[in-house]
Design a protein that fits this description.
20 strands, globular, 2 domains
Length: about 300
């Protein structure tokens, strides 16, 4: 074999070896950095293959399978004594939230099934809260970021500048170090908005009935309300309801959706189940009192239930 042919063979072999090394390096990077994420059909997380339909996927801010977040939250809060797991792939991060049930949840389930239960020790500490009521654990790329007892902690959304942040909420939480789970674009979420309302404050605190459902009345308190649809169709609230452009149920359903996404804040009261939905510029109050008041009231911003009760 002459030197020229030998040189060609050597160059070819070295090229093959170099190409193989490149592919090997890429495979290692995928395994250690991205956990070999393949978004076509299945995702491999920590050597466990999970169907794409069972994973929340966030890519460049756009979310898929957001309904899995709601399913996870609802099942954990139900305290049905089962371990739950939420898997999220956000760009190159792998996020996992687990729920571990506590002895109290297990005991309540057994009691509901007619079994005798023993009372456990509960001293009010974080550890005893975890053991009694269950807890969430947050992992990012296999590393534990925190543990959050179900009692006193809730998974919530907040929305700002069309960005949704999913996070752990708790009383007296330090929002400078908010335990964030993930974030994604509002427009790519399952959020829907059929209309929005504009509240125009008056100088008086007058209460005006604008519609009667037969079961309860819809009222305005201290201001006038307009309903805007598709940004160009504007109705006063009375006309929108009487012409069935929207219904009182639509107002309540939109408020519940907005509360779910942190666009408004909701509070419930022990007067029988009244609820306030507090927006930036106005508040929706749905009464459900023990004396039978079920009216729907739209008033000024902030908590209005006490002020309304004083003026009605």
């Amino acid at each position: 074999m002459d030197k020229q042919n030998l040189s060609v063979i050597v160059i070819f072999v070295l090229s093959v070896l170099a190409l193989g090394a490149v592919f090997a390096f890429i495979a290692i990077q995928n395994e250690t950095g991205n956990r070999a994420i393949n978004l076509t059909n299945v995702v491999s997380i920590n050597n466990n293959t999970i169907s794409q339909k069972d994973i929340v996927i966030i890519k460049d801010g756009k979310i898929e399978n957001e309904q899995l977040i709601d399913k996870f939250i609802e099942e954990a809060v139900a305290e049905n004594n089962e371990n739950k797991e939420l898997n999220i792939v956000q760009d190159e991060k792998i996020i996992k939230v687990t729920y571990t049930p506590g002895e109290y949840a297990s005991a309540m389930l057994k009691q509901s099934q007619g079994e005798d239960i023993a009372t456990g020790v509960f001293d009010g500490s974080t550890e005893s809260k975890k053991n009694a009521y269950g807890y969430y654990t947050l992992f990012v790329n296999d590393e534990i970021q925190g543990e959050f007892p179900l009692i006193g902690h809730h998974i919530k959304r907040t929305t700002s500048n069309d960005t949704i942040i999913l996070y752990f909420d708790a009383p007296l939480i330090d929002y400078a170090t908010i335990p964030e789970i993930c974030r994604y674009n509002l427009k790519s979420s399952n959020y829907t908005k059929k209309f929005y309302m504009v509240y125009n404050q008056r100088k008086d605190l007058g209460i005006k009935t604008v519609f009667n459902t037969g079961e309860y009345e819809v009222k305005t308190f201290g201001g006038d309300v307009q309903v805007v649809i598709d940004d160009d169709m504007v109705y006063n609230l009375e006309d929108a309801l009487s012409k069935k452009v929207i219904t009182p149920d639509d107002i309540l359903e939109q408020a519940k959706i907005d509360a779910k996404y942190g666009i408004c804040q909701s509070d419930s009261y022990d007067d029988g189940g009244s609820t306030e939905f507090m927006y930036k510029d106005f508040t929706i109050l749905k009464l459900n009192t023990l004396d039978g008041d079920k009216d729907l009231v739209i008033g000024m911003k902030g908590q209005i239930i006490d002020l309304y009760n004083k003026n009605k």
